[in-house]
Description:
The structure holds two protein chains of two kinds. Helix content of chain A is about 80%, strand content about 0%.
Amino acid sequence: xxxxxxxxxxxxxxxxxxxxxxxxxxxxxxxxxxxxxxxxxxxxxxxxxxxxxxxxxxxxxxxxxxxxxxxxxxxxxxxxxxxxxxxxxxxxxxxxxxxxxxxxxxxxxxxxxxxxxxxxxxxxxxxxxxxxxxxxxxxxxxxxxxxxxxxxxxxxxxxxxxxxxxxxxxxxxxxxxxxxxxxxxxxxxxxxxxxxxxxxxxxxxxxxxxxxxxxxxxxxxxxxxxxxxxxxxxxxxxxxxxxxxxxxxxxxxxxxxxxxxxxxxxxxxxxxxxxxxxxxxxxxxxxxxxxxxxxxxxxxxxxxxxxxxxxxxxxxxxxxxxxxxxxxxxxxxxxxxxxxxxxxxxxxxxxxxxxxxxxxxxxxxxxxxxxxxxxxxxxxxxxxxxxxxxxxxxxxxxxxxxxxxxxxxxxxxxxxxxxxxxxxxxxxxxxxxxxxxxxxxxxxxxxxxxxxxxxxxxxxxxxxxxxxxxxxxxxxxxxxxxxxxxxxxxxxxxxxxxxxxxxxxxxxxxxxxxxxxxxxxxxxxxxxxxxxxxxxxxxxxxxxxxxxxxxxxxxxxxxxxx
Amino acid sequence: xxxxxxxxxxxxxxxxxxxxxxxxxxxxxxxxxxxxxxxxxxxxxxxxxxxxxxxxxxxxxxxxxxxxxxxxxxxxxxxxxxxxxxxxxxxxxxxxxxxxxxxxxxxxxxxxxxxxxxxxxxxxxxxxxxxxxxxxxxxxxxxxxxxxxxxxxxxxxxxxxxxxxxxxxxxxxxxxxxxxxxxxxxxxxxxxxxxxxxxxxxxxxxxxxxxxxxxxxxxxxxxxxxxxxxxxxxxxxxxxxxxxxxxxxx
Lengths: 562, 250
């Protein structure tokens, strides 16, 4: 009973050790894939940050100024991310985690449990930020030829307390909300937080208005632009303190005032949060244990709509079940909302992109952007598919026996999943592409080409996701864990390769055609044949991936009973 | 000893546990029966410290759970109906960690862990991951954890679910031995044969209220059933068998 609070983290350490000792098939491949991707991202971030810093260095004081603002902006972005992440993670670690049933029945002081959970929350909520920041800050430091002091300041003295403050604030928000809201809605808080985060993201981007940089006539207002750039950087925010501390370290100085502000605030937030936890944690936990109320428990409209569709009773019931489960799962909803917010920001960027101001290049740039847009839609599609379509078979979980013992062919089952996944993915990405191309004002030929390409890409990627999801199911895992599994990573790699090949197959003939059109030259017969081959190749590739993946998925499901 | 005084648990306007009073004396095995949704698990989870009562008091071995939660929990063993076990730990690691939670430290831990594993017939599985265990094995492991720290009171929710006949007999023997040593056991179960065979006294809870409490014979008398089987007594007290409807639906 007197042991240190870190004792409560031991099961996670032991579990990780056991996982390493008892490797499962595919673990090494997974580690190699993840490690390889991680290394590439690390190098890219390092190189990118170093290059940008070197470029800024050539502008002397202005460069310094921009670097200083850039660091504050970087931390400001992470501040909002970490706060949101803290809210969501704390809900899970402090209130919904399964092991709490074991720990709370044991004679552990609330303070010990609190410290262990907070440490876990900070770790879980911030590891991604730390991993991202490490190469960026190292790149910045390397470009400025700073001493090792910079790296120490970056990773230990700055990022550590900086991560604690927003996560502690997020945890406090969760503690407050769990104790305030009707307990049955505890999980629904995720959705609320998702909305708030999405809204704050949009507002944040509106603050910068980066499109102003493209306007030549706005150059006299450059000072105004910098003022706008600086406006959200409040000196009272921890992101400002972190930025200033690091900037001083870059110059070989020590900004003890801001470093002290970071550390004392981090410590104060832990102490205050602990006091609040001792007072309200157990009542909040107790409330969160009540069964969650069914959301959308009627959905008569859905029932009526699905019954009107011409499909077999089996597929109809599978569809109704999938849609209802999706609508009632707040975690799914909140992620989709976030994605929608990002899509809105993406479309907004196209709306404000004023390419007419580059007169000689506008046609070329617009049409090039159409392919960038197609690629972006492909990646959005792959992301949505890996998160929502790939786990569709795994999501059956322990209830999969119902399907397997029912008089339903596994082919029917997988195809039902296919149509359920295809429609939202297609509508989202087709809408995204059509609207973005409309905003850009691209050539009508490209508009049609992109719209048709998206249709083929949708069936191919949804088929690929389902096929791999059926081959590598994770019945015990939740959707996000399934998406991050070996099969999910394999899907992402194949999906990205497919999108790249598609863009290459469509890009060359389209640009050749447009070039001839601009020059008022006829397309030669040889070029026509090549273009047809490219377009046919794209269609054939998409259909092959679609059908082969679905067949292999059905075969994998059938093999489960062998 | 376990004592519940005017225990109430409300979820919004719904009262799950309504003014429950109960006492389980040292050495007594007390059955806690009731239909699904009657409030059994809610009551047991409040005693284990997993749910906060809306009002009322819980005393475990002379410690008020609200005022001295650590002392109360230290003398209590809890076996939930759906236990949590870290799947990636071995049986031995799980018990060692559990021992640490209850402040059992030092050289004696290893011996005690092996004793529990042998008692619950899991000795040869000590170094196997829990994820490979069957439901019955997990159930026995959780019981091993609950008895590891030599509790003076035990709260157990549905102990026989998923156990084979050998495992069920083992658990019954362990409970009997524990009660002979003065441990108070409060046991919720739907297996009425087990309750009839093992319990010194039985409480029946319905819609959050205790509607009957006594020995099996006292309950029979209350139901006016002479020497009827406990199942008949239970159905009478909790309101009809519903069997008349079976023919209509089957």
